[in-house]
Amino acid sequence: MRALAVLAALAAAPPVLEGLGAGFWVVTLSRALIFALAAMALQFVLGRGGLVCFGFAAFMGIGAYAVGIAYAQGVEDALVVFPLAMLAAGGFAALTGLVALRTRGVHFIMITLAFGQMAYFAVTALSAYGGDDGMTLWSRSTLGGFGWIEGRWPFYYVALGAAAGAWALLRALGASRFGRVIDGARQNPARMAALGFDVRRAQLAAYALSGALGGLAGALLANHAEYLSPAYMSWRRSGELIVMVVLGGAASLGGAGFGALVVVALEEALSGWTQHWRIAMGLIVLAVALFAREGLAGALARLRR
Amino acid sequence: MSLTLLAVQALNGLQLGLLLFLIAAGLTLVFGVMDFINLAHGAQYITGAYLAVFFYGHTGHFGAALGLALLAALALGLVLEALVYRRLYHRPHLDQVLATFGVILILTEGARALFGPSPLSLPRPEILSGAVPLMDGLNYPVWRLAIIAAGLAAALGLWLLVRRTRLGMQLRAGADDAEMIGALGVDVARLFRAVFGLGAMLAGFAGAMAAPVLAVEPDMGDGVLILAFVVIVIGGVGSIRGALAAALLVGLVDTLGRSLSTDVARLFLSPSAANDAGPAVASMLVYVVMAAVLFARPQGLFPVKAQ
Amino acid sequence: MKPLALAASLCAAAAAAAHAETLDIGMMLTLSGPPAALGQHIRNGFELALAERGGRLGGFDVNLIVVDDELKPDVAVGKAKALVERDGADIVVGTVFSNVMMAVFKPVIESGVVLVSPNAGPAPLAGRGCHPHYFNTAWQNDANHEVLGQHAANQGYQSIILMAPNYQAGKDAMAGVKRYFDGEVADEIFTQLGQLDFSAELARIAAAKPDAVYAFMPGGMGVNLVRQYDQAGVGLPFLSAFTVDETTLPATQDAALGLYGGTQWTRDLDNPINAAFVTGYEAAYGAAPSLYASQGYDTALILDAALTAAGTADADALSAALKAVEAPVTRGDFRFGPNNFPVQDYYLAQAAKEGDAYVMHKVATIFEDHADAYAAACKM
Predict the structure, then answer these.
(1) CB C229 within 8 A of CB C236
(2) Cis peptide leading into C312, omega within 30 of 0?
(3) Within chain B, where are the H helices?
(4) What are the chain C neighbours of B130 within 8 Å (beta carbons)?
(5) Which one of C44, C190, C199, C226 would you mutate to disrupt binding with B, by most B Cβ within 10 Å of its Cβ?
(6) Partner of A258 for a Cys bridge, out of A87, A172, A248, C5, CB 3.0 to 4.6 A?
(7) B302: pLDDT confidence band, cut at 50, 70 and 90?
(8) Which residue has the higher pLDDT, A132 or C275?
(9) What SS3 class is residue C176?
(10) Residues of chain B with C-beta less than 8 angstroms from the C-beta of C221
(11) Distance (Å, rounded) from C-alpha B35 to C-alpha B187?
(12) Which of C98, C103, C193 lies closest to A136 in CB terms?
């Protein structure tokens, strides 16, 4: 029920903001929703699966570049490029997951970081697609030749739809048997294996799905900014995504999404206030880390009790 | 490629490796003994560099600046430990990641606010500012040899500390099982403080030594931090011996790779494609090596925890 | 203290002329990170010119909205949209770096305002991608590199080695040098963006023994390269663009003495506007101005002249006025070419010490009334 309330509030946001004379915040919220989508996908493997992936930005970047490269070849239809983005990112996740999931703990973190970096350097070398400078998308993805997301509000609702859809999907999966296997694999992989579950395969499936959703977020981000660059895949971005998830609350899907919304909104608000807004951001992050054990979502839940 | 050129590259790689070692040594101790992921370790490195510049501005003497910078870096490290890190030792790694990420933001932006965003410089001390001719038309700066010497001295000092002193014994035991030594009566809190202070000082020392060679700016710690983590993972978390071996390996691979990669690529690809592929491969090389090591020997080159 | 006084006088001026029309000028520069000094100099120059005119350009009160793009194109895109859509900027001045320029070009131009670049001049926007509402008051990116190529040819160098970071601007830099250098390029060394240790590259250069070295290493990279070059004692003529100038000289100091740079402005260009600018800048900011500072200053002067002629900030009218403008600025007389990029003289400059300050002195004029190589491709 709480979820429906949040959805309704987000759906009502554009007209409300427009009425308050803050119509530009719709653009910021669109960006926040895209990162919420990515954060929720990350939460599925990080919070649920216990796999701290430090290369998640690579999935977003691959999704963005799928859109960009397709655009450069003249393919703009969303029904083609969005699935392409998900396939490319999910495929990359599956391939790298095959190697990475053989490790655990800090080694898993470092291997995923390594793969993320490799993707970053590979893309930077693609001078045909702008290399380090990135490339501009002169128009957003179309639908049957029609520029359906060129406008501010249409794009917002598509982003909201994607984030809501991802949330519903991940929640359903999480509540299913698959979700319980993932939980068990996080808590005690040896026991799960002894019980006859193919832990490796389940984790790989979760990792690939997470990557695919990251690719969708990347495709949306490329459309939102009408621009893509290797910076989308840098390890700093991966770190920021982890911060979003943990800040919001790594234990829950909604928490991760909330964390992303908070971080993006805070950045926008703080940077308008002072040039050295990162100090304020750092203090907030530190305070949450020290005093809100389950992230902001956990703190809110405790307040409600 | 001539033998002299190779020798020069090897020296460069050695210098980079030892600088990385100074940073990674502290990081691996903190991670190994205290099981604490400190993303802000790079900020300790930057702090050393900025403090050296600051004190040099006030004293005009490099030696004094270095000494004061080390003390101030140690003080800052201990203050951070008392205020922030101490609360996080028993928290999950992710909480540590979040908190230290916040510390990075505060420290680097603080440095930018206090010192400005432009690169700062630190002159080398007079007696070490010359250069020795290594090959025709190339002088190797004495200061870089000094970094190599300092790094080796620090490695020796750490070896003595770990192998020959009581503190070292506690460190080794703590890296293996911190709970156990607490049960055996060791003041674990004091040990943690000592480890942290030592790590902070080493990183600050690296920053101060690197300052005359590199530009001192708020973002100088980013790349170094990631490489330091790569080093400790290759070397084996908690192992100083591993950190040294891995740091030298990473330093040499990175330096030699960067200088050879485009030439090698040109053997297989067209010049313009080689210009794209060469640097990309060079950048990836360190990570490929890490992945290979993890594949073959997941616990690192010199694992500490018997598992 | 000085910048504060400047800001105070700007506020006072704005308050006093309350009944004049207000113009919102959005200024997007890189004000953080290693290259922040470039953005800061441009901003200082522009604000100095503005303060000297009582906070007014072309009869309008100027409300300057300064935004930091952090050298992150994706961040810049969002901020550019905010500038034009939320803050209602009538004119946008920016950016410092070409990759940011390419990213914000679309949102700014599509919102129907004039975009004036005080620095970045990427080839696509000078050629095929040129636009009636887009102007550049500094140079086309290749130009300052072409200067060194020509100089190398003039000096009769047989072989040179080129060094630049491995990104588009780095590749453009090498292309610019090669366009005018007629000798052999012994090697093209690409470094990593943000690389700080050049020991490997310097060893390669020393081994190859070319007649000269050419480097394009902006910001903190340049500071490191210059110091390490000096320490290594390579001793070859060091030609550069955007590497040795008043933004990096305070850090490199003695290590940079004698090194060459290509530029469209130096402090010793002999005209009254320049003399006043240098004195005024040093008094206001306590540091020697760089070419970037002069670009910021000149942009304000050029906008002043065009706004006076057009009487409005409406994109079409202002663009027409800018195209026709012939204003005296710090580098002499200024005019735009047919693709809205400057046609001007370029000089070889050398780092020297003037009293306690490290500055660039003009050594020779390399090009006169030089247009960029992409003007022909612009079909405006």
Answers:
(1) no
(2) no
(3) 3-34, 41-59, 62-83, 93-115, 142-164, 166-183, 188-210, 221-235, 240-268, 271-296
(4) none
(5) C199
(6) A248
(7) confident
(8) C275
(9) helix
(10) 215
(11) 17
(12) C103
Are the beta carbons of C69 and C100 closer than 8 angstroms? yes
* Listed residue (C208, C194, C215, C202) closest to B9, CA to CA: C202
The Cα C317–Cα C12 span in angstroms is 30
Range with top average pLDDT, B109-113, C90-94, C229-233: C90-94
Domain boundaries, chain B: 3-296
| Token output for A150 | 């060129």
Take residue B260 and report the two structure tokens written for it: 């050879």
Q: In degrees to the nearest 10, what's the CA dihedral of C10, C16, C22, C25?
A: 0
Q: Are A82 and A214 in contact (CB under 8 A)?
A: no
Residue whose token pair is 């540091």: C287
Nearest residue on chain A to B89, alpha-carbon basis: A290
Q: DSSP label at C21?
A: P
Euclidean distance between CA atoms B39 and A113, whole angstroms: 14
Find tokens 């990669």 and name the residue.
Answer: B261
Residue A196 is classified by DSSP as T
Q: Are the C-beta atoms of B147 and B209 separated by less than 8 Å?
A: yes
In angstroms, how far is the first alpha carbon of chain C from the final one? 46
Give the contacts of C362 (CB within 8 A, at least 6 positions apart). C266, C268, C269, C347, C348, C349
Classified as helix, coil or strand, A100 is helix
CA–CA separation, B194 and B64 (whole Å): 24
For B3-296, CATH gives: 1.10.3470
Three-state SS across C237-262?
CEEECCCCCCCCHHHHHHHHCCCEEE
Amino acid at A249: G
Tell if the CB–CB gap between A276 and B283 is shorter than 8 Å.
Answer: no
Which of A200-204, C74-78, C133-137 is the most confident on average? C133-137
What SS3 state is found at A43?
A: helix
The ipTM is 0.85
